Amino acid sequence: MFSFGAASIRSSIITSRTFSTSALSGLLGKLNHVAIACPDLEKASGFYKKLGANVSEAFPQKEHGVYTVFINLGNSKIELLHPLGEKSPIATFLQKNKDGGIHHVCIEVRDINEAIKTVKALGIRTIGDEAKIGAHGKPVIFLHPKDCLGVLTELEQA
């Protein structure tokens, strides 16, 4: 059985703060969004609308090969992704995951170029060599999932 007394919780909080001295300390900000690939964008949007969420219209992102729908949660977002064209990376994802699923997480950084230099220096591979403009109109870069605990990770300049 686990014991979570006040002293134990304080100790855990203090211990977790020691991790902020890592190389990415000061670079990583808040969770911006979790992106979910959807085989049926209308159905997925409807699900969040039924829950009372603030759901955007679908936006075509031709340069990324996706349609996006943004669900504003106040402190972060959910980004629904649906293929736009046959060469869409989301189409490839949905071929492997017929029901859809979490595609990536996005974390804000204060300086995308500094973040790219830092992750590369740490041996974390990026997908592409430099930032591109993402769906929110801000510079982004993706980190290879094999270097990020199996999770495709997007860094977005805040």
Q: Which structural traits does this protein have?
A:
globular; nine-stranded mixed β-sheet; 2,3-Dihydroxybiphenyl 1,2-Dioxygenase, domain 1; 4 helices; 158 residues; alpha+beta; 35% strand; single chain
Short summary of the structure?
Helices cover 25% and strands 35% of the residues.
Low-confidence stretches: 6-21
Tell me the span between the first and last alpha carbons.
Answer: 42 Å
Overall geometry: globular
The CATH superfamily is known as 2,3-Dihydroxybiphenyl 1,2-Dioxygenase, domain 1
Radius of gyration (CA) equals 18 Å
Keywords: Cobalt, Isomerase, Metal-binding
Organism: Panagrolaimus superbus
Protein name: Methylmalonyl-CoA epimerase, mitochondrial
Domain VOC: 30-158
Draw up the topology in text:
Layout: H1 6-17, E1 28-37, H2 41-50, E2 54-55, E3 59-61, E4 66-72, E5 77-83, H3 89-96, E6 101-109, H4 112-121, E7 126-133, E8 139-143, E9 153-157
Parallel strand pairs: 1-5, 6-9
Antiparallel strand pairs: 1-6, 2-4, 3-4, 4-5, 7-8, 8-9
